[in-house]
Amino acid sequence: MEYIGEELATHSWTNLEDRMQFELDGVVEKEIKQAYNVENLELCMSCMDYTTLKVTDTDKSVQNFVADLLKKLKKNSLKEVAAVCVFPNFASIVREGLKGSNIQTAVVAGSFPFSQTFTEIKLDECKMAIAAGAQEVDVVVTVGDILEKNYEKVYQELKLIREVCREVRLKVILETGELKDVESIFNASLIAAYAGADFIKTSTGKVPVNATPESVYIMCEAIKQYYATSGRRVGLKVAGGVSKAQNAVRYLTIVNHILGKEWLSPHYFRIGASQLMDDLTKEIKALENN
Ligand SMILES: O=C[C@H](O)COP(=O)(O)O
């Protein structure tokens, strides 16, 4: 058995907080202005996990959600989004609705959004979602265990989830708004990476604080250090409260600044959003007509 504590000890987050504030307020802010162009807005579109995770979702509403998306993309001559993300019970409906497109069927699973149930139930939910057609699975870490530094427990559970999700893309949600400090976000990122996550994701969108530039900066730094050690690229998904094109470009800029352009494709960068599509479409059109 590998122990995650030994791996974490090889990484360092010292001085990260000071450097982060300095860079976010200075050079990154300048880069955002330069990055606000049609090419990058279209890139944000193609990296979007178009999401509905509402208590009112039904078979019919999800079917309409997918059909509306395809209509919007066609009407506005837009590039395909990366995925449609829904609760796991809607996986087969989404997969069916997306037939003929390259858009992936993504689900949240593992007792989203709180991850508060038995490991077996989380594993079964992932398995059932995959059997129903999910190609990507987003699960949440047990946040309390990160805060109490029960790192080994979190790591072992994620490895079990990785095993049942071996044929699909696995995104691990850290719920950074609840982790709060640099150390917890940095360590949670590395635990997920070492457990085999394809992506680490900021938030569920279901707590008061979701994605922030600071949390994304810390996660990028952990991904960078992990890549230097392992040679494996872990992707980053920004999610929760991203509803404006300006914010989407802000996150893309931070990822580019720390990780570089190799991360700027749907393979390694995603934006999970339920409200971003319209503003992004509007801004693309406005810049095109300028
Ligand atoms: O995974 C995606 C998020 O749940 C979406 O959050 P949002 O509804 O705030 O865009």
Fold and architecture overview:
Its EC number is 4.1.2.4. It is a single chain. This protein has 290 residues and is an alpha/beta fold. It has one domain: TIM Barrel (Alpha-Beta Barrel), CATH 3.20.20. Helix content is 52%, strand content 13%. It has helices spanning 4-8, 16-25, 27-35, 38-46, 59-75, 91-97, 119-131, 143-147, 151-164, 176-179, 182-194, 213-230, 245-259, 277-288, and strands at residues 48-51, 83-86, 104-109, 136-140, 169-173, 199-201, 235-239, 269-273. Strands 1-2-3-4-5-6-7-8 form an 8-stranded parallel beta barrel, surrounded by 7 helices. Helix 3 (27-35) packs across helix 13 (245-259) and helix 7 packs parallel to helix 9 (151-164). It is globular. The protein starts with a helix and ends with a helix. The protein binds glyceraldehyde-3-phosphate (G3H). Glyceraldehyde-3-phosphate is lined by residues 51, 53, 85, 204-205, 239-242, 272-275. Glyceraldehyde-3-phosphate binds at residues 51, 53, 85, 204-205, 239-242, 272-275.
Give the structure's gist in a few sentences.
The chain has 290 residues and is α/β, with parallel strands linked by helices. It is built from 14 helices and eight strands. Helix content is 52%, strand content 13%.
Write out key terms for the chains shown.
single chain, about 290 residues, alpha/beta, TIM Barrel, eight-stranded parallel β-barrel, about 50% helix, binds glyceraldehyde-3-phosphate
**Biggest sheet features:** 8 strands, parallel, barrel
Shape: globular
- Could you report the average pLDDT, rounded to the nearest whole number? 96
Corresponding CATH superfamily: Aldolase class I
β-strand number: 8
The total count of helices amounts to 14
Number of domains: 1
Q: SSE order, as H and E?
A: HHHHEHEHEHEHHEHHEHEHEH
- Largest sheet: spatial strand order: 1-2-3-4-5-6-7-8
CATH topology: TIM Barrel
Q: Beta-strand level of the residues, as a percent range?
A: 5-15%
CATH class: Alpha Beta
Structural class: alpha/beta
Intertermini distance: 59 Å
